[in-house]
Amino acid sequence: MSIAVAFLRAVNLGRRVAPAAVLAKTVEGLGYPGAWTFVNSGNVVLDASQPLGALETELQSAFETALGFEATTFVRSHSQLVEALQMAPFTVADADTYFITFLKEPLDPAQTAALEGLSNDFDTLVVVGPDVHWHMKGRSSASQLKTKQWADVVGRNGSTSRNTTMLRRLVAKIDARSG
Questions:
Q1: Which of 77, 106, 125 is the last residue of a domain?
Q2: Which CATH number covers residue 130?
Q3: How confident is the model at residue 10 (pLDDT cuts 50, 70, 90)?
Q4: Would the pTM count as exceeding 0.85?
């Protein structure tokens, strides 16, 4: 068994409510006992032995059934999260924001160039495998990137982002529980 984290795209916004208890119960119902959630933004931690791609497909289907709406899901292993957080391609000032955006699959070279080409004076994007490191010089609400620009490169439901502050807390909790 290895620890995996499922990240749901765009939940607990408007009508797209995904209660933590429902997410954990759904995962446990698939045969993954002891699943738990972290903060109220669609993050579920579980132990699983199957390949991450198959797990991602299984979880997404189950979440969509349980929630009654599209629930695009991205799965990363604990070690992938640790590796992504160690990468840190930016110097981040106290007032800055740093997200890691999870993609379904790595981008091809043209897509990578197109996405990184969206960088501007406020937003800097660096693509590494199936992740995008996104540095903002200030609050994320001030980002100059438009949803359509992003979607034109990675697809409408092709990504989900998490703040690295939250991801570090999540990894620390996983480590403490596994310790």
A1: 77
A2: 3.30.70
A3: confident
A4: yes
d(CA 106, CA 6): 17
pLDDT, residue 142, reads 94
What the block records as the tokens of 179 is 């310790």
Which strands, in side-by-side order, build the sheet including 123-128?
A: 123-128, 131-136, 97-103, 159-163
H-type helices in the chain, by residue range?
20-29, 52-67, 78-87, 109-116, 147-154, 164-178
Q: Name the domain boundary from 27, 46, 77.
A: 77
DSSP state of 170: H
Question: Does residue 58 sit in the same domain as residue 102?
Answer: no
**Range(s) of the domain holding residue 94:** 80-176
pLDDT in tens, 50-69: 999 999 999 999 999 999 99
Residue 88 in this model has a pLDDT that exceeds 90: no
Q: Please give the single-letter amino acid code of residue 175.
A: D
Half-sphere exposure of 135 (CA within 13 A, CB side): 18
